[in-house]
């Protein structure tokens, strides 16, 4: 992460440098939230109390408390501010400054809005509507972080991508390719972006997708699926878990994801 913080600090007027730092910070926070879900076993070292574990960040009380909540099974983003590494306020301010000076793309404006929400619990005036933070926003942020890390960190990061992160990306790409609007009832078509992100058959990948999503976005997911629950149930009433159409399966697992989403 220090690579991106230093690059952003060296180019305070460069929107692309600030966006790169922001998307990687988001990816790192969500990864750590998914990485340490359990209490340590007997004799295990607790990373929240190990100063070396936090480098290059200082081990702040805020970060230690957030990691303790993660390891205890809690959601660190449920309490404000959600800033696991103590870097988000600086990153947010730098991104805001470049947005103000340029014709910034929606991807940067939306991520700035997400960070302000993480820190203050409010949506800024320039916000993109929260329901658009799923697909394409979440997938765009993921892709930008992936490209940045692959470029700057090389093989060390690409080897990591052979694991769950890459499997999740491949599964979502397959969903996007398989889910055609023509195969979905008109009432459910507004939910296609959610189905392409969370309608995953694999339990582990679905859990990973939820873990990599902010509390506010999971709340939107649960609310929108609840509003369409009757239509989803009708569409998936003959779901068998076997040779179902991709659309029926995706909406069945989207319904399941909304029920599983920690709020």
What do you see in this structure?
The structure is a single chain. The chain folds into 2 domains: 2-156, no CATH class; 180-260, no CATH class. The chain contains 14 helices and no strands. It has helices spanning 2-10, 15-35, 51-54, 61-71, 88-101, 106-120, 137-153, 155-160, 164-178, 192-198, 203-211, 215-227, 229-235, 246-260. α10 (192-198) crosses α14. The longest helix has 21 residues, at 15-35.
Task: Tell me the layout of helices and strands.
Layout: H1 2-10, H2 15-35, H3 51-54, H4 61-71, H5 88-101, H6 106-120, H7 137-153, H8 155-160, H9 164-178, H10 192-198, H11 203-211, H12 215-227, H13 229-235, H14 246-260
**Number of beta strands:** 0
- Quickly count the domains: 2
The overall pLDDT, averaged over residues, is: 76
Which value, in Å, is the CA radius of gyration? 19 Å
Largest sheet: none
N-C termini distance: 28 Å
Helix content: 55-70%
Low-pLDDT residue intervals, each spanning 5 or more residues? 35-44, 126-135
Could you spell the SSE succession in H and E letters?
Answer: HHHHHHHHHHHHHH
Q: Give the oligomeric state.
A: single chain
Content of β-strand = under 5%
**Alpha plus pi helix count:** 14
- Structural class, from secondary structure content? mainly alpha
Q: What characteristic shape results from the CA principal axes?
A: globular
Q: What's this model, at a glance?
A:
With 263 residues, the protein is mostly helical. Helix content is 62%, strand content 0%. The longest helix has 21 residues, at 15-35.
